[in-house]
Amino acid sequence: MFVHVESLKPLICFIGKMSYLAGGMAISVRGRQASRKEAPILVVAPHSSFLDSCIVYATMMSSVIVRKESMDNYVGKLINYTQPVYVWRDDPNSRQNTIKEIIERATSKEDWPQVLIFPEGTCTNRSCLITFKPGGFYPGVPVQPVTIRYPNAKDTVTWTWEGPGALKLLWLTLTQVHSSCEIEFLPVYYPSEEEKKDPKLYARNVRDVMAKALGIPVLDYTYDDCRLIARAKQLGIPCAAYIRDISELRAQLGLDRSHLEVHLAAEGLQNKKRMVNKEEFAKRLGVPYDIHSQRLFDIFVNPTTGLVNFADYLLCAMFLSLPHDPLSHILSCTFRLYDETGSGLVKCNTFEAIATRVLGLCQEDAQSTFRQVDLDEKGYITYDEFIKYAKDKNEFAFLFVSDNSFKPKTKQKSQ
């Protein structure tokens, strides 16, 4: 007997909600979901967990934006039923194709499901709303903002760049006596003519409405900012948490265009003071000593001495200046930056300084790596010796990836 697929949606959504309830999480819904005619696009935030997938059941299987490579599993097959908009990560034209597909569906007279978008593009800790990507706002059609809250005594759901993995979070959630998720449909947002012409303005204004409803601030961080910060922290880049602020200040000072820092790093700091005050800091960078250079100095300053390790600053600047170069290129300059003798012969303590700042190693692993490279126990190693060793080790494969996006497999330990 033939059963129309649309008739199965209520049943699938009911089973989905019951599966959450069986795991101890009750889903409550406030407000009214608008029809596709009223709002072809649902804008959902904040996005903080894989458990946010419950929104699919709460919205009667709306079409989600999903990476194609995420579909090769059981959950992926279920999501396939929502007629998702696929994103092909390996396709350089994927972003434009996705926007085109969203526009076609949102403006089509055919009976497509509503398109469901998480405009932040990444998971956050729900303390603020980061920059909304404008893709879902290009059609210029009304959207319905939808908020997600997890008002639980213990946070066992937040799944971000740092912190527990998915399986641990799922286990922690399942061990709670009771958890809840609140989904609220806010009034439909109708764009002005100005917003229709400017998707970024439209996205900002919808974000402001949602932040006000949630009672949290907005923060102009993007997915790429979060990814860059996570990468910098993973490698141990100095002042990694302030990468975005450093990038903005360098742009305001014109350093992002001059490439002066890369030249200074390539020369090394032999016969030059490493610890500099604020006036010397600005002078070496060839910029005026003003509020911007002062703020940049303050990020790197040692509060005890009031000075900045200029090598640390240059390493961070190289990381920002050469985002697509293999990390081995940055590493070669790092060897010169931290080699105080200028001989190219790096001792164990110097290698520790290098490895904890650009290889993502803890002190113990840095010492172990040094011993493995220095097999004849000379007491020093060179950059070429380390690279020869690293090429044969899977844990250092990320050094040779040209787009600098490979994640190191080593993990930092507490020191």
TrEMBL record:
Residue intervals of the EF-hand domain: 361-396
TM helices/strands, residue ranges: none
One Gene Ontology cellular component annotation held by this UniProt entry: membrane
Keyword Transmembrane helix recorded: yes
GO biological process: phospholipid biosynthetic process
Subcellular location, record wording: Membrane
Pathway: Lipid metabolism; phospholipid metabolism; Phospholipid metabolism
One Gene Ontology term of the molecular function aspect: calcium ion binding
A Pfam short name: Acyltransferase
Keywords assigned: Acyltransferase, Lipid biosynthesis, Lipid metabolism, Membrane, Phospholipid biosynthesis, Phospholipid metabolism, Transferase, Transmembrane, Transmembrane helix
CDD domains: LPLAT_LPCAT1-like (cd07991)
Predominant location category: membrane
Family classification: Belongs to the 1-acyl-sn-glycerol-3-phosphate acyltransferase family.
Protein known as: EF-hand domain-containing protein
Species name: Euphydryas editha
